[in-house]
Amino acid sequence: EPEVTQTPSHQVTQMGQEVILRCVPISNHLYFYWYRQILGQKVEFLVSFYNNEISEKSEIFDDQFSVERPDGSNFTLKIRSTKLEDSAMYFCASSQGLDTDTQYFGPGTRLTVL
Amino acid sequence: AQSVTQPDIHITVSEGASLELRCNYSYGATPYLFWYVQSPGQGLQLLLKYFSGDTLVQGIKGFEAEFKRSQSSFNLRKPSVHWSDAAEYFCAVGARGGGSNYKLTFGKGTLLTVNP
């Protein structure tokens, strides 16, 4: 069964450094998403992406964040200058794009900012 | 704005016992409702979803959920729990965004422990 994959599983970085989290969505999917979960808190929507542009973003997704689909398979989330409060589990998801389609989630990348 | 409340942070049941996990939502329009399960080290796996139609929805692994509009609830049930059901369960509401996609708003999750 096809699945969403994410790398790395755990990323440790220093405050102020740039990080890129990588995701490989399911191959025939058209919509891509990033969510995050700060430890002990809810899973929160960050951004959705379709047709090479952002469809919707939350207020969390400020200028420090960007997303990109650099080729036909990868979907990345970049944080330009990490803050301590960016420490969280980041989940990538994808869906085919129809109204009632399921969002399939990857296993997540745990980002730790020191 | 939409929101989801899962009142139970942690539930413990014995194997073979019945299970009900509670979920209440707030959303101004007809909601898309979901239950996801997360095992340690795994991603979020969809158990079931409700978009319209029959308010009793069947999912994978023997789970079902009932949408009750009058109570703004979407509780998850299973008649007989197995040890492998131990995991964290998330209820979510989907809100339509641009195009035909939707964003999910999650509850804080309910951790299920199953005693032998």
Account of the protein in words:
The complex is a heterodimer of chains A (114) and B (116). Chain A is globular. Chain A is mainly beta. The model of chain A has no long low-confidence stretch (mean pLDDT 92). Chain A is built from no helices and 11 strands. Chain B has 116 residues and is an all-beta fold. Helix content of chain B is 0%, strand content 54%. In chain B, strands 2, 5, 6, 10, 11 and 12 form a 6-stranded mixed sheet that branches.
Topology, please?
The complex is a heterodimer of chains A (114) and B (116).
Chain A: E1 5-7, E2 10-13, E3 19-24, E4 31-37, E5 43-50, E6 53-57, E7 65-68, E8 75-79, E9 88-95, E10 104-105, E11 109-113
Parallel strand pairs in A: 2-11
Antiparallel strand pairs in A: 1-3, 3-8, 4-5, 4-9, 5-6, 7-8, 9-10, 9-11
Chain B: E1 3-5, E2 10-14, E3 19-21, E4 24-26, E5 32-38, E6 44-50, E7 56-58, E8 64-68, E9 73-78, E10 87-96, E11 102-106, E12 110-115
Order of helices and strands of chain B: EEEEEEEEEEEE
The largest sheet of chain A, given as strand count, sense and whether it forms a barrel, is: 7 strands, mixed
Count up the helices of chain B: 0
Number of strands of chain A: 11
In N-to-C order, the SSE pattern of chain A is EEEEEEEEEEE
Mean pLDDT value of chain B: 91
Q: Strand-residue fraction of chain A?
A: over 45%
The number of strands of chain B is 12
- Low-pLDDT residue intervals, each spanning 5 or more residues of chain A: none
The pair of chains with the biggest contact is: A-B, 29 and 24 residues
Specify the biggest β-sheet of chain B.
6 strands, mixed
- Radius of gyration of chain B, CA atoms, in whole angstroms: 14 Å
